[in-house]
Write a structure and sequence with these properties.
The complex is a heterodimer of chains A (99) and B (394). Chain A contains no helices and 11 strands. Chain A is an all-beta fold. In chain A, the strands form 4 sheets. A 4-stranded antiparallel sheet of chain A has the order 1-2-5-8, with no helix packed on it. A 3-stranded antiparallel sheet of chain A has the order 6-7-9, with no helix packed on it. In chain A, strands 3-4 form a two-stranded antiparallel sheet. Chain A is globular, with a radius of gyration of 13 Å. The relative contact order of chain A is 0.19. The mean pLDDT of chain A is 91. Chain B has 394 residues and is an alpha/beta fold. Chain B folds into 2 domains: 132 residues, Rossmann fold (3-Layer(aba) Sandwich); 234 residues, no CATH class. The chains are: A mainly beta (99), B alpha/beta (394).
Amino acid sequence: MAENKFVQLHPHDNVIVCCQSAQKGEQINIANQVITLDSSVTIGHKIACQDIAAGEQILKYGASIGSATEAIKTGQHVHLHNMKSDYIASHTRHSVTGE
Amino acid sequence: MRGYLRNDGSKGIRNSLVVVYLVECAHHVARSIVNKMDHPDVQLIGFPGCYPNNYALAMMKNICTHPNVGGVLLVSLGCEGFNREYLSDAIAESGRPVNTLVIQQNGGTKNTIAKGITQSQIMLEQLAQCPIEYMHLDELVIGTICGGSDGTSGISANPAVGKCFDRLISADATCIFEETGELVGCEQIMAHRAESPELAKQLINCVVKAENYYAKMGYGSFAPGNAEGGLTTQEEKSMGAYAKSGASQINGIIKPGEKPNKKGLFLMDVVPDGEPMFGFPNISDNQEIVEMIASGAHITLFTTGRGSVVGSAISPVIKICANPETYANLSDDMDINAGAVIEGSKTVKQVGDEIFELIVRVGNGEQTKSEQMGHQEFLLTYKTFDSIGPACLK
């Protein structure tokens, strides 16, 4: 099952999507490389499958879903803390984030 | 499928009597009538405001003359702004039985409830006489929305609905997708599927309108649960939501309450025209479902990742769960487990076929999970659209 824990939705994507909860330190064989998880992630969340520079577009489904607000290393969780929308800020129950 | 043939020639898959409060002040009386009837085909809908609104009037007219509706009982306090005479005339013109009870003219709460029960019983007997005719797939109108999306929605449930849409459209059914605020970021990709260059321009324009509108509201169409489920940005959510539309050509744009003028795939432009006036375009998922119904949807396909439990009055809701963990947790509320795609045990196409087959069974009378549980949510509020004025009410 471990080989199915993540999926890369498009060959150009720089993130992969979690299909089954995974723990920090786990190694994933995907997109012709082995990625070591920098943090634990749950289903639906994204992990960088290559190094991403600050300001670079995050690609999922082969399309831009926003841009990195800081440098992101392969294996790191990609979410509100290190990327933002290029359209309109996202919000949580506690605040508006990503701007 | 089993079609209830209405006098106006339309065919419904349900045979409901709706009890309609025309202002919040009449809500309790209407609800009491429905509660005391205690019959699954007697349903409560209504509009809370006292001020008149052309959008709400046009929506209510379309909802009360929806093919799934067989008869209508209007409950008015008496002094509110809702044009009950216009609404009642339009329903009568469609050949449906309609009665109006004005609380101020009927001796108040207790007497109006008693009269409402008597009238509802008579109308239920009339509904039972409705002729039944075979209904073909090309007579179906199917809408889709998503609610409580997460990082799995765009991979499993939404593309599965897209596959189902493609199959419905090739069978000449009419399909509607919506929420232009959840297409922000994929307008260019979508425009390539327009049947004409003019429509391509209009598709882009209505997404730009949505982006500007939501920017003024201060929030995108993005809920905290979306982020907890792995979605980070509006455009990421949009890419997933867009997958519900499938791969067929896009044939037109409609506004809420407008009916597609031909068969095919339509985008519903849910964002009000002009400067923001009454607030958010749709305050929650059920308002989107109501707009689908007002545009003629017999069934709404509702995809969810975090797990919505809602249904709707009038038209059945089929809930398609994207996330296998959510499905395990809320399986009583879910009609289809698209989480099987995430687990790798089914393909998107297989789940799309499952949805298609369930649509046919629901069209034959099978109850969806939300119908079984008595979910009959309904939400209609104020909005403003350029083309939903008095002219199109005729």
